[in-house]
Amino acid sequence: MLTSTFVRDQWYVAAYADEIGPDLFARTILGEPLVLFRAEDGSPVALADRCVHRRFPLSQSRREGDTVVCGYHGFTYDTTGSCVFVPGQKRIPRTARVASYPVIERDSFIWVWIGDHERADENLIPRAPWLADAAYTTVHGMEPLAARYGLLVDNLLDLSHETYLHGGHIGTPEVAETPITTEVDDEKGIIYVSRHMADAACPPFYAESTGIKGRITRWQDIEYHPPCLYLLHSRIAPAGVLPNADGTDPDAFHVEVVYAITPETEHSTHDFWAVARDFAPDDDTVSDFLRDGNRTVVLQDVAALNVLEQVIAGEAEGYQELSINIDTGGLAARRILARMAADGERVREPA
Ligand code: FES
Ligand SMILES: [Fe+2]
């Protein structure tokens, strides 16, 4: 029997802020069906998407002011999930309520706490400030993945696959050739994986968006905040151009690639991706190119991981993978996720 790999008592990205409006919006997170909407004052609300009466999905019901009226027999819920009306009688049963979820809107995401409400401290939400920063221009999307979230974590922590899976887009030979350094902050539960290429071919993704001709200095600095948030700080500059001694870096192009990895079920995942850049801010051609390019790359990963999920489903118990140096970050992530799933304890201190 499959033991759950879900990590509860954590914040998860449920949606982009711009996906949630007055209309009822359904999304399943860690196996829990949620209905999301904005109350009349604009604040986001997340409730269990199952009427307490006969389970009708509230997401297929309707709003009436700040209440949700079940589309089956009219049980009516306020934004806290309490039932304020039942048909045919005055007395509302004490247990007539649906679960509500703590929700925070931050950095263009709607974060939802899955677990014990007492522990829902908003200071624990990891940050991706570029996504809502006027100094950056961001494109984003979300692709449904028919694979367990652990496969996406493996994928993102080992970018050597760019050379093979994403050749012609973001992969060049130097990515797989250049060794990584991996650091784990066990106390905060953050994993850092870096690959600094001093003299590399410029892949089309960056050549066309930055306009750089010729070879580049390409840095990839990953920061994974398990379970949900993955940041890739990408620095691209003409070969030989380095940051100044004081840390300023005016001659480089900076791209902040952000993924939110939100399990839907044990075997499916919401793959949120965003690309924020600090150059050509108003150039829609660059935005369109990066949006299409990154989506293409994400769909290449999705296709590969969907295959892996099927391979795993069909394999005999006890299959042993072989790991090498490139897997150091992914293995550290698995260890931390397993620990978080097992003890349900916070491993990250409030910021
Ligand atoms: S199922 Fe919702 S009111 Fe009956
Ligand atoms: Fe990839």
TrEMBL record:
The keyword Metal-binding applies. PROSITE patterns: RIESKE. It holds the Pfam family Rieske. InterPro entries: Cholesterol_7-desaturase, Rieske_2Fe-2S, Rieske_2Fe-2S_sf, VanA_C_cat. Keywords: 2Fe-2S, Iron, Iron-sulfur, Metal-binding, Oxidoreductase. It comes from the Bacteria. SUPFAM superfamilies: Bet v1-like (SSF55961), ISP domain (SSF50022). Residues 11-112 form the Rieske domain. PANTHER family: 3-KETOSTEROID-9-ALPHA-MONOOXYGENASE, OXYGENASE COMPONENT, IRON-SULFUR DOMAIN CONTAINING PROTEIN. This is Rieske 2Fe-2S domain-containing protein. It comes from Actinoallomurus acaciae. The lineage of its organism: Bacteria, Bacillati, Actinomycetota, Actinomycetes, Streptosporangiales.
